[in-house]
């Protein structure tokens, strides 16, 4: 991935953003939030606060009601308005990428700044209204059209790993399909989400006349999540996050599209271009300090090329931890908790998630250059760094006898999430064996994981890959109802 900014421009924008950040942890005042002032319609002020909120609400039910009003307005204004909203989101996301990237970096304190910015700049690769094409049938009994129509209000949950990128990509998909949306962002990225939402709504209202098309809860909580799930206006949930939120959504009773957790393995076989494999694994696995759900998380290398791979991996920038350092880091990253059945299982220390490799190395007692993209250790397949989705630029490398053992262990490490996997190989048998065994939503051959989202590979982008519920990389059609319109014995033109 290329670095897009010079140091001076980053410094200037950092200064601006820091000046604008809230002091002493106090959230910025909502843009305009009045509860009752000027109300004359008997609603107790709800209309007034809704009309001035720019999409950011204290109360989840109020956000859902405002989003429902907006959905009805969008319905009236048609596809032209949807296209305009998509254009607004893409333009503003690109224009504000530096400022918002820095703000999100300051708020979440995870990942790499240049990648935070780049993830916003590439939101323009998310498909919009052009994606929706009706299906038609024509025959002796007339014609039938199947159209992709909106649900209404969509409730959406976003992760702390990519707050504004996921939010912006979701808006494009969801509004292109004719819906409005209410977000319950991760509390750790909620200020960034609210900041972008205010800017989007201000432009949407100015350009289309629609207020609060994109809403969020200002201080999201489990209660606000439950309120959104239970709200009568919300017809569909779009979930992006780990196992707990996916489970909660599936139990909510609302239909949910779940972009759930992953733990993507990589297999390197004897036929691979070893130097390129090493470089690709660092390009994908070190991206934003391994915060991407598709990012390489553990590597299995066939023994006959193992030593060569390790040499190339170090040449590409990875620094090795010895066994003692690995053990020390394991103690920092994982604690062990008894489950109900008496087994102990590792619990991740979130403090190290998305941290720079050099800082993590220090915790291991290893000193490396500040710009080291990744540290690694040679481990067995049961090591917690292999088994757990740890989201750190720390790569466990496992030696395997052959491709068959590599595929078997890769599958175990992926936990049947069916999320993402990578192979470096020029043997179609190895590729096919791994593809069939892991049954993943994204399977990248001979490239970094990010190529699976259209960055260096063919295809389009979304930050929500619906793995658990099977819709795949989300697009506008993911957020539609399919409806059939039939003309009997007529309108066929020959
Ligand atoms: P997280 O699961 O901690 O949080 C995700 C969202 O769910 C947040 O908004 C959080 O507030 C909410 N949440 C968490 N537990 C909840 C519960 N019990 N009830 C209601 N809401 C709850 O995850 P994170 O650290 O923000 O993001 C990383 C995780 O998300 C990883 O597991 C990663 O693989 C996954 N992810 C998946 C995709 C995908 O496209 N499949 C994309 C990005 C991230």
Major pleated sheet: 7 strands, parallel
How far apart are the termini? 54 Å
- Return the domain count: 2
Q: What share of the residues lie within helices?
A: 25-40%
Q: Give the helix/strand class.
A: alpha/beta
Alpha plus pi helix count: 16
Could you please say which CATH topology of the largest domain applies here? Aldehyde Dehydrogenase, Chain A, domain 1
- The CATH homologous superfamily of the largest domain is named Aldehyde Dehydrogenase, Chain A, domain 1
Question: What is the CA-atom radius of gyration, in angstroms?
Answer: 24 Å
The CATH architecture assignment of the largest domain turns out to be 3-Layer(aba) Sandwich
Heterogens = nicotinamide-adenine-dinucleotide
Give the CATH class of the largest domain: Alpha Beta
Mean pLDDT: 92
Question: What spatial order of strands do you see in the largest sheet?
Answer: 11-14-15-10-9-16-17
Poorly predicted sequence stretches spanning 5 or more consecutive residues: 20-44
Give the gist of this structure.
This protein has helices at residues 7-20, 46-52, 60-95, 97-108, 113-121, 163-176, 190-208, 222-230, 243-251, 274-285, 306-315, 323-333, 357-364, 384-387, 403-414, 428-438, and strands at 56-57, 135-139, 142-150, 153-157, 180-184, 214-217, 234-240, 256-259, 265-268, 298-302, 318-320, 334-338, 344-348, 374-378, 394-400, 420-424, 442-445, 465-466, 472-473, 480-488. The protein is of the alpha/beta class.
